[in-house]
């Protein structure tokens, strides 16, 4: 990016809410149903029907507003947003405009170097989704209206974002909060989380905004980064060539790595907003607000700070372990069995997440229970088995999900701690490796590792390493 310029980025995020039914009717929101089966006269926009607001949508939106430091407006209204798409049966969308339910919030993002930045949230409002247009190879357009009326929450940021990296961190934090609250699954592939970006560039030091474009169709956070980087460079190149940036909507083509023009950018007046006459204002009373506040879980930043302060974990560990609520819960369940906080963290971050990432499964589907992993850690700490043996027990736990104590007994893996037994094996190894003994006595300390390895091989890895090292050194010192 040319250092003369800076980007001004605002993001509009649509989160599909995890309600069982749609926002204004009783139709199911289940994903993957046969086309046009989860529909009724209300979501099809047939004459004479009346919408009835789903209370859960209000509660979930208020919960997100509280979690992002928003002001909760005690009165908000629904508006009709008029536009024509084949998959919008009413030719208008019920949304909120002048009086949204949540306003003036913020979240804080953190960079790799530990510095932080506050990103403002202009508004959070409720609205219904449109249907889905499917374009087949014969150039026909098929319409599936199952998604029509699915409850959405739109989160509009302030134009505080300056780089694609900041946008990525902002989206990651939003998704983390949404999933911690349990109100959205954050699945971009299913369309549960969607992002549109408004982008302009200006000379550094300039206060006036440049002409903005909107980029749509970004189906992953990395694609948002790539699309923003492309559009920023495109606008800078235009300005450097003395050309103007045209206000328009662009579609991101991830395969070609380019943004293609779709249409001219609409302004608010193009939608002819007016209050929806079929819906009463949404009024949030004290009792309802207090009840919603009581449901607030421990949020990611709070949990991360607690893991650092209470468990003495490094910030990096705490960041990984609290990346999802389910992973944090898994870690804390291990701690009901063991108080070795760091070992528990190490096992989760290495062995557990390795399997989760390779198998592409959720932590909820991970076959080893946190309690059993805690038992494995305790077997190491009480010297029943060595860390090396534990690494052999763990794959068996993955296969069978047996209790680690059972596996250790069945395979006769209990650690040898009998000093006299270990001493006789040490003497045997020293006798068989006179050359290495002489090298050690001449000052080559590295040979010690070889000798330890030979002893562990003789005991099939079952000898206590600390006792082995102690006896071996004592024997070698007597030879000096």
Automatic annotation (TrEMBL):
A GO molecular-function descriptor: ATP binding
A biological process term (GO) from this entry: glutaminyl-tRNAGln biosynthesis via transamidation
Keyword Cell membrane: no
Keywords from the named record: ATP-binding, Ligase, Nucleotide-binding, Protein biosynthesis, Transferase
One Pfam assignment: GatB_Yqey
Domain Asn/Gln amidotransferase positions: 329-476
EC numbers for this chain: 6.3.5.-
Enzyme class: ligase
Domain of life: Bacteria
Catalyzed reaction equations: L-aspartyl-tRNA(Asn) + L-glutamine + ATP + H2O = L-asparaginyl-tRNA(Asn) + L-glutamate + ADP + phosphate + 2 H(+); L-glutamyl-tRNA(Gln) + L-glutamine + ATP + H2O = L-glutaminyl-tRNA(Gln) + L-glutamate + ADP + phosphate + H(+)
Transferase listed as a keyword: yes
Family stated for the protein in its record: Belongs to the GatB/GatE family. GatB subfamily.
PANTHER family: GLUTAMYL-TRNA GLN AMIDOTRANSFERASE SUBUNIT B MITOCHONDRIAL AND PROKARYOTIC PET112-RELATED, GLUTAMYL-TRNA(GLN) AMIDOTRANSFERASE SUBUNIT B, MITOCHONDRIAL
Subunit annotation: Heterotrimer of A, B and C subunits.
Known role: Allows the formation of correctly charged Asn-tRNA(Asn) or Gln-tRNA(Gln) through the transamidation of misacylated Asp-tRNA(Asn) or Glu-tRNA(Gln) in organisms which lack either or both of asparaginyl-tRNA or glutaminyl-tRNA synthetases. The reaction takes place in the presence of glutamine and ATP through an activated phospho-Asp-tRNA(Asn) or phospho-Glu-tRNA(Gln).
Protein name: Aspartyl/glutamyl-tRNA(Asn/Gln) amidotransferase subunit B
Gene source species: Melioribacter roseus (strain DSM 23840 / JCM 17771 / VKM B-2668 / P3M-2)
Gene: gatB
């Amino acid at each position: 990016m040319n250092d003369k310029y800076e980007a001004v980025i605002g993001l509009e995020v649509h989160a599909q809410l995890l309600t069982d039914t749609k926002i204004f009717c009783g139709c199911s929101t289940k994903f993957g149903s046969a086309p046009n089966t989860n529909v009724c006269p209300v979501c099809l926009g047939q004459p004479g029907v009346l919408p009835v607001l789903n209370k859960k949508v209000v509660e979930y939106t208020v919960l997100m507003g509280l979690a992002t430091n928003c002001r909760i407006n005690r009165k908000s209204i629904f508006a009709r947003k008029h536009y024509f798409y084949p998959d919008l049966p009413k030719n208008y969308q019920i949304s909120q405009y002048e009086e949204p339910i949540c306003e003036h919030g913020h979240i804080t993002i953190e960079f790799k170097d530990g510095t932080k930045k506050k990103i403002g949230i202009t508004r959070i409002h409720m609205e219904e989704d449109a249907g889905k247009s499917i374009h087949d190879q014969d150039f026909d357009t098929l319409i599936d209206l199952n998604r029509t009326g699915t409850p959405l929450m739109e989160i509009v940021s302030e134009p505080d974002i300056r780089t694609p990296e900041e946008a990525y961190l902002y989206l990651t934090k939003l998704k983390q909060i949404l999933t911690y609250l349990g109100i959205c699954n954050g699945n971009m592939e299913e369309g549960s989380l969607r992002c549109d970006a408004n982008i302009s560039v200006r000379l550094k030091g300039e206060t006036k905004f440049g002409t903005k474009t909107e980029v749509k169709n970004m189906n992953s956070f990395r694609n948002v980064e790539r699309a923003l980087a492309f559009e920023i460079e495109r606008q800078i190149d235009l300005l450097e060539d003395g050309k103007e940036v045209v206000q328009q909507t662009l579609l991101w083509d991830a395969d070609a790595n380019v943004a293609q023009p779709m249409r001219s950018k609409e302004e608010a007046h193009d939608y002819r907003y007016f209050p929806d006459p079929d819906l009463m204002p949404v009024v949030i009373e004290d009792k309802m607000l207090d009840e919603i506040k009581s449901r607030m879980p421990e949020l990611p930043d709070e949990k991360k700070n607690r893991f650092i302060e209470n468990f003495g974990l490094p910030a990096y560990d705490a960041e990984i372990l609290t990346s999802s609520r389910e992973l944090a819960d898994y870690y804390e369940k291990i701690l009901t069995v063991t108080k070795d906080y760091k070992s528990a963290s190490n096992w989760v971050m290495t062995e557990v997440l390795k399997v989760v990432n390779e198998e592409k499964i959720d932590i909820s589907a991970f076959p080893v229970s946190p309690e059993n992993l805690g038992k494995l850690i305790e077997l190491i700490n009480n010297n029943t088995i060595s860390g090396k043996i534990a690494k052999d027990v763990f794959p068996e736990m993955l296969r069978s999900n047996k209790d680690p104590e059972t596996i250790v007994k069945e395979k006769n893996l209990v650690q040898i701690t009998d000093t006299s037994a270990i001493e006789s094996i040490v003497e045997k190894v020293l006798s068989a490796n006179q050359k290495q003994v002489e090298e050690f006595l001449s000052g080559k300390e590295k040979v010690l590792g070889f000798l330890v390895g030979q002893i562990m091989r003789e005991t099939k890895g079952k000898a206590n390493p600390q006792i082995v090292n102690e006896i071996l050194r004592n024997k070698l010192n007597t030879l000096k």
